[in-house]
Amino acid sequence: QVQLVESGGGLVQAGGSLRLSCAASGSIFSINAMGWYRQAPGKQRELVAAISRGGSTNYAESVKGRFTISRDNAKNTVYLQMNSLKPEDTAAYYCNAGGYSGSSYYPGGYWGQGTQVNVSS
């Protein structure tokens, strides 16, 4: 079992920044890769960014150049630094423990409870 707890969401004006954190506990040795997803009202959940155990990263086109995913293996924590936020970034953000198939991230069965990000115009 893996437990994931997100934090760091909130309300920010367009152009501002937020840093999300995802702390993992439990059977963390089983975690190969981590990803951040988001889901806006009425929309499907989408992958925002992912990072492999070795540090390779993937980003959605919509966030490239603005968001940065990183991990601190000593703290079992993954971060999502979000800069130049836009109103369309408003969503619930979820942390996931998954893996990679080639260069593509796939979600695993462990999800955090989500943290809300609201970006005002």
Short key terms for the protein model shown above:
4-stranded antiparallel sheet, mainly beta, 121 residues, 0% helix
Provide a compact summary of the structure:
It is built from no helices and 11 strands. It has 121 residues and is mainly β. A hairpin with a 4-residue loop joins strand 5 and strand 6.
How would you describe what is shown here?
The protein has 121 residues and is mostly beta strands. It has no helices and 11 strands. The strands form 2 sheets. Strands 2, 4, 5, 6, 9, 10 and 11 form a 7-stranded mixed beta sheet that branches. A 4-stranded antiparallel beta sheet has the order 1-3-8-7, with no helix packed on it. A hairpin with a 6-residue loop joins strand 4 and strand 5. It starts with a strand and ends with a strand.
Strand portion:
over 45%
Spatial gap, N to C terminus: 40 Å
Average predicted confidence as pLDDT: 95
Continuous helix count: 0
Tell me the overall shape. globular
Oligomer: single chain
Unreliably modeled segments: none
Strands, count: 11
State the secondary-structure class: mainly beta
